[in-house]
Structure formats: C-alpha cells, structure tokens
TrEMBL record:
Any Pfam family the entry gives: Dirigent
Signal peptide: 1-23
Complex and partners: Homodimer.
Family annotation (InterPro entries): Allene_oxi_cyc_Dirigent, Dirigent
Main localization, broad class: secreted
Gene3D superfamilies the record matches: Allene oxide cyclase-like
UniProt keyword terms in alphabetical order: Apoplast, Secreted, Signal
Protein purpose: Dirigent proteins impart stereoselectivity on the phenoxy radical-coupling reaction, yielding optically active lignans from two molecules of coniferyl alcohol in the biosynthesis of lignans, flavonolignans, and alkaloids and thus plays a central role in plant secondary metabolism.
GO cellular component: apoplast
PANTHER family, per the entry: NUCLEOPORIN-RELATED (PTHR21495)
Cellular localisation: Secreted, Extracellular space, Apoplast
Family statement: Belongs to the plant dirigent protein family.
Name listed for the protein in its UniProt record: Dirigent protein
Length: 181
C-alpha cells in the first residue's frame, strides 16, 4: 500500500468514528431571516353552546359553582363565516379549548386552531393561545403560530362581539393580522 492510500484509509476510519451529530439535533448555525409577508383576515366566529346542535360543549366542571364558571373546560368546533349570518359562506373552523379562567371576572383562556377550508389558505391554519376577556366588547388575542402557508406565523386578532347572550352563545367579528413567510 502506498502512503496516500494509507492516509486515505486513516481518514475514512476517523471520519466514521466521529459522530456527525449528537443523534437528535443539528449543528446550530446563524439563522438567515427570510422576507416576511402580511395577510389580513376578516371573518365571523359562531360559538353556540345551546340548542340541538351546539358547536361548543362543557366537558368538565369543578365541584364548586362560581359566577364566572371558573374551572370549566369547553371543547369547541366553531364555524367561521364571511358574514355575521351563520348561513353565510363557511370559510373554516376554530377547534380547541375554551377555559373559563377568571375567578372574579368572566374571562376565557382560548387555545384554538383556526383552519381555513376555502381559497388561497385552504388547509392552512393559525394558532391562538391567549386570554380572551369576553366581557370587553373589543379585545385582542395573540396569534402564536400556524401551519401550511401560515407556518411560523405571528400576529394578533382583534375581536368585536357582534352578538352575545348570557347562555353562552356568541357571534364574534375577527380582524386578524398575520405575519408569515
Ligand atoms: C369537592 O371536592 C373536594 C375534594 O374531593 C371535597 O373535599 C369537597 O367536599 C367537594 N365539594 C363539594 C361541594 O362537593
Ligand atoms: C381544500 O383542500 C382540500 C384538501 O386538499 C380539498 O379536498 C378541497 O377540495 C379544497 N377546497 C377548496 C374550496 O379549495
Ligand atoms: C388591531 O388593533 C390594534 C390596536 O388597536 C390596531 O393597531 C390594529 O390596526 C388593529 N388591526 C386590525 C387588523 O384591525
């Protein structure tokens, strides 16, 4: 064997012995930011807790009663429509949990995935994880991420109550600003 072949073999053996990575993570490198875009969304959410066909149901409640329903857990699959009329075109749905979490004032913590089923953003979704102080007519929720065309999104949703009753039915207007790639 000549010298260079031996050196080549040593190189091959050494490279094989050195692990390329620690099994579950890559080398950390500088993040190269990409140009972001902004999309505004406008729709109405219909949250119905009453009637024959509720879109939100209480699945657990504590063994105390409170004015603010503190500690209840509500699962929702609320339709999103283009107009305030529930019979207007459905463009998606918000699925997840609504947790009444105010002890003194009625307020929810919302953990919802808003997936769109029409047009450009069909199959894409935005994730909301935010306090939702529903007694305020206007309020803002945090958009913390997304899927599909909204992958790695951030944003805010401005909410205005269009209709609401004490039994827990509501129609809420959403103006959302989504920053995404
Ligand atoms: C609620 O549950 C706790 C813990 O099990 C119990 O001590 C308490 O008596 C219950 N309260 C009511 C109103 O049932
Ligand atoms: C939305 O995407 C689904 C799944 O790809 C497809 O079945 C459906 O036809 C699409 N709807 C519209 C309105 O584009
Ligand atoms: C949401 O509300 C904020 C604060 O009032 C405002 O700056 C922003 O323009 C609103 N965004 C939309 C999409 O309405």
């Amino acid at each position: 064997m000549n010298r260079s072949l031996i050196l080549a073999w040593i190189l091959v053996l050494c490279t094989a012995a050195i692990p390329c990575c620690q099994g579950y993570y890559s080398k950390t490198v500088a993040y190269k930011p990409r140009r972001q875009k902004v999309t505004h969304l406008h729709f109405f959410l219909h949250d119905t807790m009453n009637g024959n066909n509720p879109s939100a149901i209480v699945v657990a409640r504590p063994n105390i009663t409170s004015r603010t329903n503190f500690g209840n857990i509500v699962v929702a699959d609320d339709p999103l429509t283009v107009g305030p009329d529930v019979k207007s075109e459905v463009i998606g749905n918000a699925q997840g949990l609504l947790v009444p979490s105010g002890q003194n004032v009625l307020s929810l913590t919302a953990l919802l995935d808003f997936e769109f089923t029409k047009g450009e953003f069909n199959g894409s979704s935005i994730s909301v994880f935010s306090r939702n102080p529903i007694t305020q007519r206007e309020r803002q929720l945090a958009v913390v991420g997304g899927r599909g065309k909204f992958a790695m999104a951030t944003g805010v949703a401005n909410l205005t109550t269009y209709f609401g009753n004490l039994k827990g039915d509501a129609i809420v207007e959403y103006h959302v600003t989504v920053i995404h790639y």
